[in-house]
Amino acid sequence: MTTHTRVSAILAAVVVVAAGIVGLAQSKSAPVGPPAAKPQTIVFVCPFGSAKSVVAARFFNRMAKEQGLPYRAVARGLTPEATIPSYVREPIRADGFEIGAEEKPVRLKAGEVRRASAVVCIMCQLPPQQSAAARQSIEWGDVPDVDAGYGPARDKIVAHLKELVGALRPF
Description:
single chain; globular
């Protein structure tokens, strides 16, 4: 199965799940009250957890909030670097995001994979055991390296995110 076919199938499944959630929320028998206290998690993973996944999680959270979606994203790495480099910290500030001085890349844990609504792998693949545990796994194999240029990497990530958020958006 090609990556495009797999992504399309996963996005279709996400749409069905989102439609079910919206249907439950609009049901007359559903209790009226505040939204669920804990949003669903989308885990963005890149090899080192210091660039592509950081950019994706920041932009996803902004988009989800703007759309009123019950999701939140986290950035993870398969083999995390010690720090988030300046070639990520500096340009992402121009996009309206801050990366705290103490924020560091975080290693992906198996429990996060099992609990996540979806795991999005950016230029990497989950180990087989974690892949089998994921509810949904999406691979983005066409994102340029951030150290080769923040703008092109960000633009490709944002294009993918628009598709993903569009599939999650309530009808």
